[in-house]
Design a protein that fits this description.
The protein is an alpha/beta fold. The chain has one domain (22-121, 135-172): Dihydrofolate Reductase, subunit A. It has five helices and ten strands. It comes from Nonomuraea guangzhouensis.
Amino acid sequence: MAATYTFDIFSTLDGFANHDGDWGGYWGKQGPEFLAYRAAAYRDPLRMVLGAKTYSSNAPFLDAGFDRSLFDGWITRMFDSPVTVLSSRLTEPIEWPDTTIESGDPVEVVTRLKAESDVPLRSHGSLTLNRALLNAGLVDTIEVTVFPVISGKTGVDRIFDGAADFDLELLEARIFDVHTQVLTYRPTRHS
């Protein structure tokens, strides 16, 4: 049986994955219920799949001198998971333990990973990579966490710019800490 692939992304209500400005991590809206949910989502074994940009932005946090107790538990678990980085420019060795770099076509690499992996595949962020995988039909579920903010002035990186048209089947909808929504969808290309 093929491993499942989840595109896991944080978003503002207006569809931005990141921001410029002083919002802070999670747009300052993470609460205890949401953090417990994230910890459970990253509890079981999985393989992270990241693009070079997402890997590079997280690599400084893996330095031996960085105080990992500053992270929420699920982030530490994500950093402790095996990782495949899809990149034609990065070379090994790299800082993230248990990490391999694949320089081939991302669609071919993820197709192979889905066939060979004994654990689910999950990608947090990596927008360019995940839009390509979504367009290729390799994303089994999209998990969008919608934080209760609109970042019209400071928002950067619209999540689905460049994606094809998709119908979404809602598999699960949950609300945490009275304001944060987690929506899990199965995408099907719209015909």
